[in-house]
Design goal:
With 577 residues, this protein is α+β, with helices and mostly antiparallel strands. The protein has 14 helices and 31 strands. The chain is 32% helix and 23% strand. The longest helix is centred in the N-terminal third of the chain and has 27 residues. The protein is globular and about 85 Å long. The chain binds adenosine-5'-diphosphate (ADP) and magnesium ion.
Length: 577
Amino acid sequence: MFPREVLRQTLLRIDGRPYGAYRDLTGAYDFGRFRLHVDWVQPDPYAPPSRLRVRAPVLAAGIRPVQWADPGRRTALEDLLLRRFAAAIHRAAGETAAASPDRQPPPAVCLEVERPGQQILQRSGCSISGGLVEFRFGCALPARGRLVQGMRTAAALDVALPEAVAFALRSRPEDLIERTAHLELHEDQQVLRRTLEERGWVAFLADGSLLPRESGRSDLPLRARGAVRLSAPTTLAATVELPHRGPVRGMAIPEGVTAIVGGAYHGKSTLLGALALGVYDHIAGDGRELCVTRADAVKVVAEDGRPVTGVDISAFVGPLPGVLDTRSFSTNAASGSTSQAAAIREALEMGARLLLLDEDQSAANFMTRDRRMRRLVPDDPVIPLVDRLRWLWEVERVSTIMVVGGAGAFLEVSDRVIRMTNYLPTDAGEQARSICAELPDDVRPVWTQPTKVRPRLLRVDAPRTGARDMPRVRIRDRDGLVYGETPVDLHACSQLVEVGQVRALGEMLRLAFRYADGRRSLEEVARAVGAEIDRGGIEVLSPWPGSAPGGYTRPRGLELACVLNRFPGLAIGPSAE
Ligand code: ADP
Ligand code: MG
């Protein structure tokens, strides 16, 4: 441990020297209120950023032990502290450069902390344990050419950083209020989630919630004047008693089959999107903070071209030309309908009990077939979903919520019909029933499964995880990753919300491959990886032993399944040797 002055002196000494001199920064520095650890220094300006940590006692921040007593609360508190730390760093990095004579960007731009999105999630960027809070972040140590810019680094690490830490841990009355409100919201959300289970609901959306987003690319709430807040129709309304907010009225969606109908542009997909992300808790002010969906909900879309490995799709697809057996269906490039059938079976393998579907993102021939087609092509191998929904619910106990605009056959098999009109839900159940009686449709429910589905036993042979030759994981954005040489397309996994989750998934693959030895099911593999993270924290994902970088956000096991199922090297059963 060095005193703080040593950091300054070292930077002064190496200023203007070749970049490698930055190595002298490695070590820990005592800043009084916190300690700065420089764990790893990048060898050159173009290498990945150097890895740093800050550790401070939580008590000094006015945080009481009860506020991080259980893992859920601790995650909520870590989430808030990281938000504040990231906000302060970004503010410092965005400060106007006009003041500096050479118009250089502010020194804090070298500090790399990812800003958390709208969801309250477990992230490696902040962790509380043993009475200490730790922030992990990157620092792209600045260079002029290939020479050390010691003064800029000092301005970042010795000025901007302490200010950000102070802001993150500040305990003025308004900070304590914010912290308490954040933890109370978290508690209300937990109670709301328990209520779903107790009352047999799959989702609850509080009155006053704001579902639309700023744009397709942004997860921020729509701030336009015309934004319509949710209000539940009387017949679908229920009231929940929350510990902090008291009674909250809203729209409860019970288990079973629910259709969301309505004219184009009336808010159907927006509602479904909120339901899909309702598996996460949202921060105050998001608009969806009291919209919760069962944690195991999976949005299922058609995704032609995706690989499928050994999935039993026989419940939806009978014998196909050129395919030996749809009880173990494999392809490098699935069609729309087979990809959607596979996605449903994969969700069921993971124990998901709620499927979300949007007609817009589904394969038409997978969804329904009308009278004329049933007569013209009686031997179509696809059993359309409309024929399977009652089986899914009554036999498999899997609920469905689906957006339908065109296919009225679904009204026949729905327990509930929610109609969106000008962004507001109404109960169209009665009306739908009388229309069905008047204009019967040709639905032919199928109640049996050709054979008992056995769980796939996963195997991945190629990229073994040796300690040395670990394949590199590259992440460009939320939509995919490259594991070694193998790209995996994740654009269809719409319940991924942060690039940090994709980063974590890349590392979780390494762990998963150790368990995928041909003797464990998808669910067992995902559970084993989840248990490792539960035990060691999300920082176990770090590819660098002993130093835990920020930037990883914990995804659900269902998202790990999403990646594994799309991994081209996946195989089934024990290896031949
Ligand atoms: P649909 O799926 O019924 O065609 P969308 O859900 O895609 O409709 O919504 C159409 C447009 O209306 C989108 O731009 C969306 O952001 C906007 N929108 C949805 N819900 C609301 C709302 N409650 N208030 C204001 N605008 C909304
Ligand atoms: Mg739509």
